[in-house]
Amino acid sequence: MTARIPGGDRHANKQGQVTAVRSAPVYRAVVFLRRLEPRTARTTSEVVNFVLWPIAILTALNRVVIKAVNGHYITDDFRPVYDAALAFLNRRPVYTADFGSVDPHYLYPPSGTLLIAPIAILDPERSRWLFILANAIAILIALYLLLRLFDLAITSIAAPILLLATFSSETVTNTLIFTNINGLVFLGEMVFLTLLMKRKDLWAGAAIGLTFAVKPILAPLLLLPLVRGQWKVFVTAAGIPLVLTAVAWPLSVDPMDFVRRTVPYLSESRDYFNSAIVGNGMYYGLPTALIWGMRLGFLAIVVASLWLLWRYYRKDELFYVATTTGVLLTASFLLGSLGQGYYSMMLFPLLMTVVLRNSVMRNWPAWLAVYGFMSYDSWLSSRFLTSGRAAEYMRTTLGWSLLLLVVFAVLLYRYLAARRDGRLDEGIDPPFLREDAPARRDRAPDAPEPEATTAPAGR
């Protein structure tokens, strides 16, 4: 037996000897600190974690505290947003941008102006720092949701790899340096996909609807609830931006100028800071017919890929949703009127499918494509001016293009092989991905349980 000693951290045993006992908070603190205690890794997983966690964390801090706070590299996306918010709060015209210049323009609709208006309560510098922090936190939460979507723990080796890759990329680095809202949009995408997979349709629609209120970059993802029959998504996806617009419209001095001036500009294509086919085509003076030919050609590839995904993978929910998301968004960046490199942040769900056995990303051309639109490397050269400029200006366009080609080629090869072998009714995954493999945890709720099979003799 032991007797409680006043003070809460000692006990006396039967012989009267006093022994120290840690209180619960102290014990938890000690356990936490022991996790940080330097020790020699015993497994490959521990080696990867010990190596990458410090590098990943310091890289993220460098991007946020140094590069982003320094800012003002090439362009500043935050200043026109702050000026618009300040004008909105002071009942002044918002949509006054000179679209003849190459400076960043304010393009958010009145609903977006209403949402971002609070940033002008602070002075520009502190407001910008807070906006950077909000985007960084949003990206971190989105990465956590991405890990959970693929049933990966924060203690797995995937976590530091994902963190390091994300904050080393051009898309996240420039999002923070230019200080735009893409980090928050990425969070909206991940919340939408997570809730969509859980069949919480109204909340999923609310998540994507909030992003629509600011910018409709995720609009192609509405194809997912459309083909999956999740109709309630559309109620809140459309309702939230409409309600916010109804509130913002009478509070704006010049809401109709958004319709008269900004909307026509949004429908045009520009030949600067534009990695879409049409943007680079115009920059290099390609014939209009050739530009349209390339756009229509890639559109056919996208449609074929989407059909193969829906026809043969729609019951494999995780693979289908993540891969289709990547195809839809890449196509919108490449084939639309405006595609900027840092939009590629929205493609992380597709890249994360590499952990799945049947991923279309398990080949080197796919990651050659990823380098094109994710790398922070600059190919501008003071020695090779023309070729260096071409490599720098084209790499994002070529990366998106190659990614779509890889997805289509993998799916088409699987389809042709399955048709040749007469197993289309079983799906198009190669036999080596299906035989002797454990049942997939991401099977659709209404999909039948796999039948037990006996391996042929001699295997």
From TrEMBL:
Biased composition, class Low complexity, residue ranges: 450-459
Places the protein is found: Cell membrane
Annotated signal sequence range: none
The UniProt record lists the keyword Chloroplast: no
Family: Belongs to the glycosyltransferase 87 family.
Region Disordered, annotated ranges: 429-459
A GO CC term attached to the entry: plasma membrane
The protein, known as: Arabinofuranan 3-O-arabinosyltransferase
Compositionally biased region (Basic and acidic residues): 429-446
GO terms of molecular function: hexosyltransferase activity
Keywords: Cell membrane, Membrane, Transferase, Transmembrane, Transmembrane helix
Transmembrane segments: 129-146, 152-169, 176-196, 202-224, 231-251, 289-310, 317-335, 398-416
This protein's record includes keyword Transmembrane: yes
Membrane topology: Multi-pass membrane protein
